[in-house]
UniProtKB/TrEMBL annotation:
One of its GO terms (molecular function) is N-acetylglucosamine-6-phosphate deacetylase activity. Gene3D superfamilies: Metal-dependent hydrolases, Urease, subunit C, domain 1. It comes from the Bacteria. It comes from Paraherbaspirillum soli. This is N-acetylglucosamine-6-phosphate deacetylase. InterPro entries: Amidohydro-rel, GlcNAc_6-P_deAcase, Metal-dep_hydrolase_composite, Metal_Hydrolase. Keywords: Carbohydrate metabolism, Hydrolase, Metal-binding.
Length: 375
């Protein structure tokens, strides 16, 4: 039997905080110690030991973009692992079908094996081309209507775990139930749809919303829009908590309204890199002052990492244990993965260790300790 690694500190188990130890190989073997009735205070000392972060919306990092194909996905996953992401979805851009085929083929190969030092790539998030051409955001202008035959063809290249769709596009509403029945999660995004379109999409099987508030019709008290449909009816939605894409007040409103709101980075090739020019699919983007934008000033993904997402949530007033749910457990639940996103015997040993200032000290992906150089 493989020798077990043992960590000592304040362990956020599925039963609450435990001041003690966690033992693991590639899977968690045991958590033992003194249960705490509340979050560990200064009198307890010690590091925080949390579930590894799960990011369901990753375009790039470390200077590389998912749409490049080749080894880009592995290099991206290495950079994000250094910031505590232990599993992720490689996310495509809207593009001609032949470019999507090449990118998804590379993602499919990356899903079969996890090179040392990288996060686990669980599959793909297809963000386009099935979006509204009137609300592209930073997506290139290659939006088309979806067909079951085409989605099935793209699924042959890589596991499609998530797909973003604008439900108001002709034919999409009827397609939602069929796509959901195949096991993928369908999200509403890059849409000009109304509140009523959003409600209808949820009734037809849509499960969530892509980067809530961004690239969707906004909330007004007489025209609640797609954002209003999310706030009124959604169980799940993803949100980018970089404090640029969404105002802190809007984040707090969403946290109160959507029970399992979870966080994504929507990260680009510029993540983990100095200011300058990078590619996002076919688009040239510029990183400056912590943001990534097109030449016209449109926000184009982010430079956020999941460890900073956790710190931002805590800075907004969330307890560490609630912030952890929104960067680990809820995204795992959304994909139906009970063996990730939580610290429990028999789950994958995807673990992050943070100091009392919530700075990363260690990351383990399926029991392998990750090199935190430049983290």
């Amino acid at each position: 039997m493989k020798n077990l690694t043992q960590l000592q500190g304040n362990v956020l188990s599925t039963q609450g905080w435990v001041a003690g130890t966690i033992s693991f190989g590639d899977m968690i073997a045991d958590i033992c110690g003194q249960p705490l009735e509340q979050a560990p205070g200064d009198e307890h000392g010690g590091d925080y030991i949390l579930p590894g972060f799960i990011d369901l919306h990753v375009h790039g990092g470390g200077g590389r973009d998912v749409m490049e194909g080749g080894d880009a996905a592995q290099i991206i996953s290495r950079m994000h692992a250094q910031h505590g992401t232990t599993s992720m979805l490689a996310t495509t851009m809207t593009a001609p079908i032949e470019e999507l085929e090449a990118a998804l083929a590379a993602i499919g190969r990356a899903c079969h094996a996890r090179p040392a030092g990288t996060a686990r790539i669980l599959g793909a998030h297809l963000e386009g081309p099935y979006i509204n051409p009137g609300n592209l955001g930073a997506q290139p202008d290659f939006a088309i209507a979806a067909t079951l035959e085409q989605v099935d063809w793209l699924r042959s290249f890589a596991p499609l775990k998530l797909i973003t769709i604008a439900p108001e596009v002709d034919g999409h509403l009827d397609l939602l139930r069929t796509l959901t029945a195949t096991g993928m999660r369908v999200q509403i995004g890059h849409t000009l749809g109304t509140y009523e379109d959003g409600v209808a999409a949820l009734e037809h099987g849509a499960a969530g919303f892509t980067h809530l508030f961004n690239a969707m019709s906004g909330f007004h008290h007489r025209q609640p829009g797609m954002a209003g449909a999310a706030l009124a009816h959604a169980e799940y939605a993803e949100l980018i908590p970089d404090l640029l894409h969404v105002h802190p007040g809007a984040i707090k409103a969403a946290l109160r309204a959507i029970p399992r709101l979870y966080c994504v980075t929507d990260s680009t090739a510029a993540s983990g890199m100095p200011d300058g020019d990078y590619m996002l699919g076919r688009q040239s983007v510029h990183k400056c002052l912590g943001g990534v934008r097109l030449a016209d000033g449109t926000l184009a993904g982010s430079t956020l990492t999941m460890d900073q997402a956790l710190r931002n949530l805590v800075g907004l007033g969330l307890a560490i244990e609630e912030a952890s749910l929104r960067v680990s457990t809820y995204p795992a639940d959304y994909l139906g993965m009970q063996e990730r996103g939580r610290l429990k015997n028999g789950c994958f040993a995807d673990i992050v260790v943070l100091d009392r200032q919530l700075k990363l000290k260690a990351v383990y992906v399926e029991g392998e300790q990750i090199d935190l150089v430049d983290a």
